[in-house]
Design goal:
The structure is a homodimer. By secondary structure, chain A is α+β, with helices and mostly antiparallel strands. Chain A is built from 13 helices and 10 strands. Chain A starts with a helix and ends with a helix. At the A-B interface, strand 4, strand 5, strand 6, helix 10 and helix 11 of A face strand 4, strand 5, strand 6, helix 10 and helix 11 of B. The structure holds a DNA duplex.
Chain lengths: ~350, ~350
DNA sequence: ATTAGCACTCAAACCGAGCGAGTGCCAAAT
DNA sequence: ATTTGGCACTCGCTCGGTTTGAGTGCTAAT
């Protein structure tokens, strides 16, 4: 059975190893921390921890490093979130102080988070599945090309070029715009796609093929928009922590560029009671990220939409500080975006 | 004086070194290429090239590698652009085949370019300085918040949230929208900013403060938009070529994330007669990119706007192939975006 | 101008000894 | 039953020395 002191030993092993990047031995533990026992005792505890696979020795006779299981134990039971420094709180204030465009807020947020944690930071766009259409705008680019702009109550704006099978004159465009808006505004994105279908019935016989073409394109635009997007910053922090990756950081950087893997990870994470969730090391192996950890938290955007934000870095990271930063930024973002 | 054969020697040194990543010696040259002379003769030529600082020896007695000056000579006088393979041409077709949104086209293009060259690829958004406003849309988000959407004839769409000092009801919004559009549509972005100022005169006395506030915000939006943006892909290729950077790739990745340095570089490059410009190694030292080269080309977007696109990678890169790829993609993009 | 020959250089690979942080275990002490 | 001091042992690092080999520079002959 792992005693209380053993767990304390695990805690300092994690802390010291994260700080020094070197395997930590029994001697250095009694030196740096006041356990009130001798090195030999610590060694016994370490043998216990090794039994439980919470720590491991890189070579037969060297200090110990935490296993993934050890990190997991640490974040679940041992880590207390380090409160942010004054400077960090100020950074949050000044960075996110002035409100603006959604794009703008999210890109500021992600840069802030990467600076606070020195890791790769990611912010997910608020999901559109709960969003409602606020406005649809159609602009003529050429006789057979339209630009459609959809505005959602979450602040999302999405535009797309539509190719239409026949000319669209100004009056027709006005009619389209008006009927589209009366039919669709206020609808959730799912309903909107459904209502598109019945749209042609509102127009004269001759218009129907064109209207149907447009409705189809708009429905597609709505659908394409449901898929989520990420904003990412701080990829350079990966090379800064390169030594922490046993292999190469190439697959990690590739995953970051792809985004799709990260989105899946986000969707599978569940927050613990502190509001921050962690996925550690080999837990991410199915995604090809066996040496990285992800810390994430949810945040509330306009319209009650919920989305995630978080950081990604080497398994050997400062969980206490980073989890605190993620939580703080998520809270602040919810406050500055949310409906309240 | 550097003879013709010496230049041939330089060419094969560049080619072999780029291919093998190892200093190339006189022996291996006569082995791999049929110069019809002995190794000793090659050595004499190499001594000449070294005199001219076109090549250099990493250690006293090892093969030679090209200097930056040598690479410059190579791209200016020695390199013939390797025609793309069939597969590559097909990749361009399938990748850029279907037209769509400007955002979409550019992001496809940049991914394509990074795949073709295995380098970091960059595409600049078409400059707005030549763009004309096609439409301005105002949407009410809350009584004192407006979303403004500006659409330019280049396909640009830019949105921003405006905070207004007083409530704006539906009719007023309609009036604003109408007068803004009649006043501004067709104007270039520079003129538009100017015309904003006189806008308040069109409204009743009571409205003027609000109108002025909005005009100010819009003018700012126009101005902010003048600054150019880049789309970037393939940053992971930097770590793939990491060994080619003597120091760390950290500053390079940071510059890529910053974008601002890259924009300045783009603006200073001038195309040669082949339409592709190169900035090599220490030529980029003022930007902190002394070990990287940039290949760029201009492309034509809608409205006659011109913008740049290119790749960035280690000085030791395959200039022949990469310049060909940059040129091909630039041409294709011009064709698919241009007014013709 | 080119070439063969030859002495010389120097990075990289290889080797083995010695160091030292750290372990595991055991017998004694609390 | 837990803790502790002691001690032999392990094994990755570092450091000096040797070897190897690709490649050069020079010189004298063609």
């Amino acid at each position: 059975m792992v005693s209380d002191r053993s767990l304390e030993v695990l805690r300092v092993i994690v802390q010291d190893y994260v700080a020094s990047r070197e395997p930590v031995g029994s001697k250095s533990i009694v030196d740096r921390h006041s356990f009130g026992v001798s090195a030999a005792t610590i060694r016994n505890d370490m043998a216990l921890l090794e039994e439980e696979e919470l720590i491991t020795a890189p070579h037969t006779s060297s200090g110990r490093i935490p296993t993934d299981k050890g990190y997991r134990m640490f974040v679940d039971h041992l880590a207390d979130l380090k409160p942010l420094t004054i400077a960090q709180r100020q950074a949050i204030e000044t960075f996110l102080g002035e409100s603006a465009d959604l794009d703008d807020v999210l890109s500021r947020t992600v840069r802030l988070l990467s600076q606070l944690t020195h890791q790769v930071a990611m912010v997910q766009y608020p999901s559109l599945s709960q969003a409602r259409l606020r406005h649809i705008e159609l602009v003529s680019l050429s006789p057979t090309k339209l630009l459609s702009v959809m505005i959602a109550d979450t602040g999302h704006v999405d535009q797309r070029v539509l190719e239409v099978p026949a000319e669209v004159d100004v009056e027709f465009l006005g009619e389209l715009r008006a009927k589209l808006n009366t039919a669709l505004v206020g609808a959730g994105v799912l309903e909107a796609a459904g209502r598109m279908a019945g749209l042609a019935a509102l127009f004269g016989e001759g218009r129907r093929p064109v209207v149907n073409a447009i409705a189809l394109a708009l429905a597609e635009q709505v659908a394409a928009n449901r898929q989520d997007r990420l904003v990412i910053a701080g990829a350079s922090n990966l090379v800064r922590t390169e030594e922490d990756f046993h292999g190469s950081i190439l697959p990690v950087l590739e995953a970051v560029e792809e985004q799709v893997v990260l989105l899946r990870l986000f969707s599978e994470l569940e927050a613990d009671q502190r509001g921050v969730s962690a996925s550690i090391g080999r837990e991410n192996a199915p995604f090809g990220l066996a040496e990285t950890s992800i810390l994430a938290s949810g945040y509330l955007a306009q319209g009650g939409a919920v989305a995630h934000l978080g950081v990604l870095g080497p398994t050997r990271m400062d969980y206490s500080s980073n989890m605190a930063a993620v939580r703080a930024v998520a809270r602040y973002l919810s406050r500055s975006l949310g409906d309240g």
